[in-house]
What does this fold into?
Amino acid sequence: MFFRLYKKITVVLFLAIVVSGIVRTVVNADTEAVQIVVLMSQVAEHYKEALVGYKEFLANQNLKTDFHVFNLKGDSSKAAGIIEKTSKRKPDLILTFGTLAAKTISGKITDIPIVAGMVLRSDYLLKPTNITGVVMEYPLDTQFKWLKRFLPDAKTIGVIYNPEENQERIDEANVYLNGMGFTLYSQKVNDPKEIPRALESLAKRVDVIWGMPDKVVYTTQTAKHILLFSYRNRIPFVGLSSAWVKAGALYALDWDYTDVGKDCGEITLEVLQGGKKVLFPPVTTDNVKYSLNLKAAERMKVEIPEKLVREAKTVY
It folds into this structure.
């Protein structure tokens, strides 16, 4: 499995590099192992799955590797020491899993290529130029097509968001939704204290609440309030991840984390073969998975087709 978009972007660049004679063979049976530092955001099973997929892919390419794994355990204050050790070690490449790990190291080390996996948004990886990776966010048209499959009778989609972070995304969503026959009812939130007021404005106005990556609105601290509002008002909430679904969201688009690791492995190979120069933007996977909460569906009186239940990655 590979990215269609990624292939379109990289094939031309890769051929150009070959013609110019820059590409070199990174490894063969006689070369030293490629040194890779891995930085994880926290201890979680899906990070382990991604790392397994990554190592398997590189091993299948007969790439000799030597891994040095660090874990922030959700605490960015641990980063300074890890960055110092990494700078001294001078690895061939840095691999990160999770948004915290990517944002923590981005800009701190600029002379070593960084491949970031499981990052929530592509704009987190736009600068500096030595970082690229796999973004864990599906395109808006993909998100809304799946929303229509789960909730075909929904007409008005509600969303609360921080305008500083997401105004451009909301404007883009309006374009997609209008073309699909939906109406978007949005409420701005500048501070978490405004969330109760914003949610109340959605009551009796919307058929579903759409969640998006937003550092102000959708956090571990606000999740309980948002999900309680969803349950009390019987308005389905579309979650950001399987963790949100487990906690009470109706569904969330999800990923095969082993495949994500393999995708990071493909990017790693391209980066190393390209002389360790990042020549392409971050990409997203097109292998859509989803998790589903049948208890939430029953509470919201939403009938989920048996086919969607059967094909779910995880059912709660």
The chain has two domains: 4-136+256-285, 140-253+290-315. Residues 4-136+256-285 form a domain with the Rossmann fold fold (CATH 3.40.50.2300). Residues 4-20 form the longest helix (17 residues).
